[in-house]
Amino acid sequence: MTSSRRLSTVILPIHRWNDGGRALWARAEELGFHAAYTYDHLAWRTFRDRPWFGAVPTLTAAAAATERLRLGTLVTSPNFRHPVTLAKDLITLDDVSDGRITLGIGAGGNGFDATTLRPVGEEPWTPRERADHFDEFVPMLDRLLREPSVTQEGTFYAANEARNIPGCVQRPRLPFAIAATGPRGLKLAARHGQAWVTTGDPKLFEAGTPEQSVAAIRNQISRLGAACEETGRDVGELDKILLTGFTPDRPLQSFDAFVDFAGRHFELGFTEIVIHWPVPDSVFTADTELFERIATEGTAQLG
Length: 303
Fold this sequence. Notes:
By secondary structure, the chain is α/β, with parallel strands linked by helices. The protein has helices at 17-30, 55-65, 83-96, 112-115, 127-146, 183-192, 210-230, 255-267, 288-297, and strands at residues 6-10, 35-38, 70-76, 101-105, 149-153, 158-163, 176-179, 195-198, 239-243, 272-276.
């Protein structure tokens, strides 16, 4: 993955394919986005009782409906995924897309993904347990996508002669974009990531200021650099992706607001900024004409 200033989008998996879904992914390619991602959840926040489709079939369909656009998840997690079955799906996706898949992956959170598969009354994993699973999940998935046969017995996951032939189109495997802000996750990003993902500091979303958010993100990048140094890796090798919509900023409020926001964050070292495709009557409400102008002209204004 090369370092530059790229603009990408997230298309939530809420659209029936033959009732506008296909057109959105094709339009994302027409607008010149570097990549179009989707969420990988069983349900998500206020969309829980609204249409919500599976990430892997959605991306498979999107791969068939586009030619150049990179595709991926922001993000997948171990909350309801197993590395063996996920590897099989990813190899298939990478094949169908002819090598255009990026796996955004994180430890997961406390939402519906954490409880849907649990027996009634069973508590979801604690933050430490999520980190423990993530620590084992990522290296095993790395092996599964690189090697034709894997046998591995872990604390949480096992693979018994798991075959993954022919492997990924992208060699040695498709890229990982690892979402992390804690020390253990940052070490995983340093060891296994081709990119690092952040949404900023969630504690600042409602009560913080844009200046505080920039300072918090700068600190995250510094800690990523320390994790890379500890593992003997140059932090410059990692792309740095900012998923917007979770900081105090309002970059889709106006064209100038986006240019100012993007400029400040690219200066921090980000190589890719991701904006949500507008969804009416939701937290991602935005003017569609403004969104498309940002897509086609926004980064060009940065020089």
